[in-house]
């Protein structure tokens, strides 16, 4: 892989909602075999993973950039495959290199890291260079939908183990499948007791052909009796190849998660849902990068536009770019300081975001918390 290939490609949702687009992909595919896996849309079916050793070039380059005074975006391990498959030697070496180069990382897994991995993660955490995310979608038996993943109890034990050595842990409900969590309050209480500091909520997105499968798995669940909506903001519901639960259902579930998280003292956000009014604290980015103990850079998103609306009562498109300059985010002229591969990748996303600001009807579907009225963006 070339350096530019470690930048996530642009899309309406990624370009408008994701702060961190640098992916430290360490495997070519994933053998965990989750039925709902999103990554199959991008990299094809599950299979035997091969290590991507070029990830070392990425980390070394980010380290060099930092030595030259450039603040970098945290690296996500990983975006399309679990970083702890098999012995995960490539992941161990990548984390060691990140520690040497002092590159901040966000690790996301549903597998159990080995002792050596935990040891280097502890070193990263001791210097504020690591946020650890555990994917957990239920407290029930998960084998039907996640055939090769550890049990929910094993993942709760992992959360406890990692949090006890001082590493900030986030639970990603990724995805929330209607009917799989029996009681949201109990779920949130369990992950809080295990030591999590934040919950990130992301709803199921599937091909229309799979809807009947999930509705049979969870008979009686109200969401399956309603019409699901298009995940592609410019495509009508009836023509959409990818669908998600209806908006009213997503809002109801998000509101309950947000309320229960607040009771337990946990931060809360949604991932690629745009339901910003339920995020708390409001100044916490949706990936939890704020839990890092080092300086990092992020790109602007519609969340920043929403913060402008909250502060002023409304916002115009240009207010987002003014905030970008004021907060020293990765956009505009500031990107000129960065190497070409990095600058070009971020610029493509910036242009996509800029185009969405000119299409309020699309923007409102991506970020339902924002409405457009009489030339201004306001809160829903």
From TrEMBL:
It holds the Pfam family Radical_SAM. Transmembrane segments: none annotated. The keyword DNA repair does not apply. SUPFAM superfamilies: Radical SAM enzymes. The keyword Cell membrane does not apply. Residues 26-179 form the Radical SAM core domain. Keywords: Iron, Iron-sulfur, Metal-binding. GO terms for molecular function: catalytic activity; iron-sulfur cluster binding; metal ion binding. InterPro entries: MJ0683-like, rSAM, rSAM_sf. This is Radical SAM protein.
